[in-house]
From TrEMBL:
Bilayer topology: Multi-pass membrane protein
Lineage top rank: taxon: Bacteria
Domain Major facilitator superfamily (MFS) profile as annotated: residue spans: 55-451
Lineage: Bacteria, Pseudomonadati, Pseudomonadota, Betaproteobacteria, Burkholderiales
Keyword entries, A-Z: Membrane, Transmembrane, Transmembrane helix
Pfam family, any one: MFS_1
Transmembrane segments: 60-82, 94-112, 121-140, 146-167, 179-199, 205-224, 276-298, 310-328, 340-357, 363-388, 400-421, 427-447
Main location: membrane
Cellular location(s): Membrane
Ranges for region Disordered: 1-26
Protein name: MFS transporter
Length: 456
């Protein structure tokens, strides 16, 4: 073949730009950006980037402060009740209304995060939480303390979901569950610190001094804002939305408010949302019902001192931390559903067994084993929820669904307290064991497997 007859080489086809809408209208783009796939470079990386590590540290710190605050409150309830002359119902309601505030904060800050960015809104949640926790130190009675705790709960409610979305979008897909488990470990670090420090500090600085410590997270919020960037996935998503909104009539530009609708966009998504809400409700009901009353259970049933109760509670928390880490590893290797089912069966068995232990050594080891299963599942929610919903609704889904669970979980301490008063702590723990059967059913029939799926 001569040079003259040789066909001309075809020019290489240029890749489509990431803002291509593939025939969708601007309204479709704003409402359902999941139809425009985008995967960050880090999603296929073998190791997390520096940005991913900074995002993880910020999310872990935020969640650690939440854990410290709530367990600290459990230890302080007797002192607060004695000083402010609170009834048992009023004391328990401080926990319940903190969690009610968390539901409100979860919805509001989740929507704001999907609109304005993960990092910016995460700093807002930390500031709200820190300032109103500090104000609790100035409370003069039940009414103002209840208001401060509720508003602090609003800040608390936003931190979990935003941190999980931030980490899921920044970390490689094959490490996503492990990264989510690290955020869950942040809570346990805070709880462990509360279990070890509160019995030592409370007699020295009192409950007001303990609340004043809550102002320290305000410093963390400024460090987060300065040192962490928005995930590439979210930045690209916002660019697509901005381009689409530029072509919209002004009255249609509030499409970001429709993120809640994406949680029930179709039958499959609606089933998954119901399933996740059940999982989160059982998780929080069991966790708060157990951890708020565990010191009192050990004290009343076995005569443990405050310090000894703290040490035995710390053993349970250490088991929870181990369980969270193992869950992340298992969920990345075997899948989300198998890991959840294994832990749910373990929770049923171990809570029931713990209720029948009586010797100090058995309570110590049994508490650690129970902790592995009861709270280990927290290591999987961030990855599970992130893979079920698009970028336009990811933080909203994390916060709304998990904080629905917190709202239900807020009744855990009340239910356990009522069962213990009417029957016994053993009966109350048996009730907690039974609720994990709901978890098993929800996982089997409502939760799809999405291990390692590319985020949309």
């Amino acid at each position: 073949m001569t040079a003259a007859s040789r066909p001309e080489p075809r020019p290489a086809r240029r890749p489509e730009p990431p803002t291509e809408t593939s025939g969708l209208t601007p309204a479709d783009t704003a409402i359902a950006p999941a139809a425009i796939p985008h995967t960050s470079e880090n999603a296929h990386a073998a190791h997390p980037s520096g940005h991913a590590m900074r995002a993880l540290i910020a999310s872990v710190l935020g969640y650690a402060m939440d854990g410290f605050d709530l367990l600290m409150l459990g230890f302080m309830l007797p002192a607060i009740s004695a000083d402010l002359h609170l009834s048992g119902g009023e004391a328990g309601s401080l926990v319940t209304w903190t969690l009610v505030g968390a539901v409100v904060g979860g919805i509001v800050f989740g929507l704001l995060s999907d609109r304005f960015g993960r990092v910016r809104v995460l700093t807002w949640t930390i500031l709200v939480f820190a300032v109103f926790t500090g104000l609790c130190a100035l409370s003069r009675g039940y009414a103002d303390l209840l208001v401060y705790r509720t508003i602090a709960g609003i800040g608390l409610g936003g931190e979990f979901g935003i941190g999980m979305a931030l980490v899921a979008e920044a970390w490689p897909a094959q490490l996503r569950a492990r990264a989510s488990s690290y955020v869950g470990l942040g809570w346990q670090v805070g709880v462990l610190a509360a279990a070890l420090l509160t019995p030592w500090l409370l007699p020295v600085i009192g409950w007001r001094g303990m609340f004043a410590i809550g102002l320290l997270p305000a410093v963390v919020s400024f460090a987060v804002r300065r040192g962490v960037e928005e995930p590439e996935l979210f930045v690209a998503h916002r660019a697509r939305i901005a381009q689409a909104q530029a072509q919209m009539p002004a009255h249609e530009r509030g499409a970001w408010l429709r993120a809640l609708g994406l949680l029930v966009a179709d039958a499959r998504t609606a089933r998954a949302s119901v399933g996740v809400a059940v999982l989160c409700s059982v998780q929080n009901f069991g966790y708060y019902g157990l951890m708020i009353w565990l010191p009192a259970y050990l004290s009343k049933s076995f005569g443990y001192s405050l310090t000894k109760s703290g040490l035995w509670t710390a053993a349970t928390v250490a088991g929870m931390a181990l369980g969270i880490w193992l869950f992340g590893v298992a969920a990345d290797r075997f899948g989300r559903r198998p890991a959840f089912l294994f832990y749910q069966v373990g929770a049923v068995v171990m809570v029931f067994v713990y209720a029948h232990l009586s010797t100090p050594f058995a309570l110590l080891i049994g508490g650690a084993a129970m902790g592995v299963f009861v709270n280990g599942m927290i290591g999987g929610y961030g990855a599970l929820i992130s893979e079920l919903y698009p970028t336009a609704a990811r933080a909203t889904a994390q916060n709304v669904l998990f904080n629905i669970g917190r709202a239900v979980g807020g009744f855990g301490p009340l239910a356990v307290g009522a069962m213990a008063a009417r029957y016994s702590f053993t009966a109350a723990l048996g009730m907690l064991a039974a609720i994990y059967v709901l978890d098993i059913l929800a996982t089997l029939f409502l939760i799809p497997e999405r291990r390692g799926a590319a985020l949309e």
